[in-house]
Amino acid sequence: MRFTLIIIAVCFVGFFIAHFLVQRTVVHGASMEPVLYDGDNLLVDRRATTKIKRNDIIVFTYLYEKKTYYIKRVIGLPGETVQITDTGDILINGKKLDDTFGTEKITDPGLAEYPIKLASDEYFVLGDNRNHSEDSRFSDVGTVKAGQIVGRAFFRFFPFNKIGRI
Which are the catalytic amino acids? Predict the structure, then answer.
């Protein structure tokens, strides 16, 4: 009887953690290189959906395919105006962003060729591998609504030689 109660308690705690606190996700593709690579396994803080800051790496749902998640870096915050110039610079409210995460200058500004004013519940995201990323610059992803955000990626647990905070 006591052993059964312990198993039930462990299952309940596991269920609670997996559904309300953290989620495991796997990186697919090269859009976040050199920070994250294809096959990296991450933990996502599901409680962080309202505390998103610039440069956080978030996981969000893709609107056009069920159970498809994207992993990108937050560049623009709610209420800001984002634009990418023809020289590849990112402007936030008309001022150049000191972008230390992009691996190269952006060659295709996409929708951000013209200023994009973010609503009070929208974020603008980019992959770190800027020219090899499907992100907010393109209409099939677009700006990310707060309700799409699953959480903030915070820890890589596989591969084992790269375990640690991200």
Answer: 31, 72
